């Protein structure tokens, strides 16, 4: 079935198979937010499991608007989008899938040598390789290769051919990169008045605190920016005034944040803002 012959009919068929769908406008991009949701003034939809405060019935918020509910798909609020739609997209992560988007012949040749065979769908310039299982999405994990799974969408083109394989470690490894070195920033805090021994210098106490902070950041499923800042604030308020924190501890926290997609600049800003809030 052509994705443009009848987008609404195509969407209903896809949704019936358990894949959350949304309309695409020209340019293969989702429709923009409505006036009430423009600029995420409504609070947005951070993820599909916890859509947040926004209850807008329109196809807003890109991938987070994807649904399998035929009543929503057929609703009057989605009707205009379907009339103007140039295609259909689906949320792979919402269907328990991961799409390896191969953008050219070189990327396809690499996949044949590096990845296990699975269901494939021809695209305009390359192929989609679809696996069972979810992971974080990431663009340009290598030349001509994107990963589309959670918090992302993929264009529906066809059902594809071949048996869908389980998501392999070789695909998961594509987004695992050595964390960028954090911007060197000395943690300068006053030593305890009177030169008394700092209770926070107990190795186990400090090690446990840093490990708990790393875990808090790593387990964040939404609002990562806020989680990073609050975690930095908690660490500094507990350990920052006695001089027990070192650049190595800060680097571990930065690495945990960067593994969740935060930039070095954001980590540095969050750290600086936390110190400022505490008057350090």
Short key terms for the protein model shown above:
six-stranded mixed sheet; four-stranded antiparallel sheet; 280 residues; alpha+beta; single chain
What does this structure look like?
The protein is built from 9 helices and 10 strands. It has helices at residues 7-16, 70-73, 76-84, 105-114, 169-172, 203-218, 224-239, 247-259, 264-277, and strands at 21-25, 29-30, 87-90, 97-102, 119-122, 127-132, 138-142, 145-148, 154-155, 165-166. A hairpin with a 4-residue loop joins strand 5 and strand 6. The longest helix is centred in the C-terminal third of the chain and has 16 residues, at 203-218. It is globular, with a radius of gyration of 23 Å.
Write a short abstract of this structure.
This protein is an alpha+beta fold. 34% of the residues lie in helices and 14% in strands. It has helices spanning 7-16, 70-73, 76-84, 105-114, 169-172, 203-218, 224-239, 247-259, 264-277; strands at residues 21-25, 29-30, 87-90, 97-102, 119-122, 127-132, 138-142, 145-148, 154-155, 165-166.
What portion of residues is helical?
A: 25-40%
Q: N- to C-terminal separation?
A: 62 Å
The proportion of strand residues reads: 5-15%
Task: Give start-end ranges of low-pLDDT stretches.
Answer: 47-51, 183-197
Oligomer: single chain
Please work out how many helical segments DSSP would assign: 9
Largest sheet: 6 strands, mixed
Rg from Cα: 23 Å
Q: Write down the overall geometry.
A: globular
Q: Output mean pLDDT.
A: 82
Q: What is the number of strand segments?
A: 10
């Amino acid at each position: 079935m052509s994705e443009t012959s009848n987008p609404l009919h195509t969407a209903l068929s896809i949704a019936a198979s358990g894949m959350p769908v949304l309309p695409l406008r020209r340019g293969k991009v989702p429709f923009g937010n409505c006036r009430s949701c423009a600029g995420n003034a409504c609070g947005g939809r951070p993820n599909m499991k916890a859509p947040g405060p926004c209850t807008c019935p329109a196809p807003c918020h890109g991938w987070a608007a994807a649904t399998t509910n035929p009543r929503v798909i057929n609703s009057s609020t989605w009707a205009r989008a379907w009339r103007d739609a140039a295609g259909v997209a689906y949320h792979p992560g919402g269907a328990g899938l991961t799409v390896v988007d191969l953008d050219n012949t070189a990327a396809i040749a690499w996949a044949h040598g590096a990845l296990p065979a699975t269901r494939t769908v021809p695209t305009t310039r390359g192929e989609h390789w679809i696996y069972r299982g979810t992971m974080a999405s990431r663009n340009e994990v290598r030349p001509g290769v994107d990963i589309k799974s959670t918090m992302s969408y993929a264009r529906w083109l066809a059902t594809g051919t071949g048996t869908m394989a389980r998501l392999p470690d070789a695909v998961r490894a594509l987004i695992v990169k050595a964390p960028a070195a954090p911007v060197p920033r000395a943690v300068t805090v006053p030593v305890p008045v009177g030169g008394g021994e700092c209770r926070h210098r107990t190795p186990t106490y400090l090690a446990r605190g840093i490990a708990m902070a790393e875990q808090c950041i790593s387990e964040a499923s939404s609002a990562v920016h806020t989680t990073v800042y609050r975690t930095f604030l908690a660490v500094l308020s507990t350990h920052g005034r006695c001089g027990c924190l070192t650049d190595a501890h800060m680097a571990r926290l930065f690495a945990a944040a960067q593994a969740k997609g935060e930039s070095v600049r954001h980590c540095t800003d969050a750290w600086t803002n936390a110190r400022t809030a505490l008057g350090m």
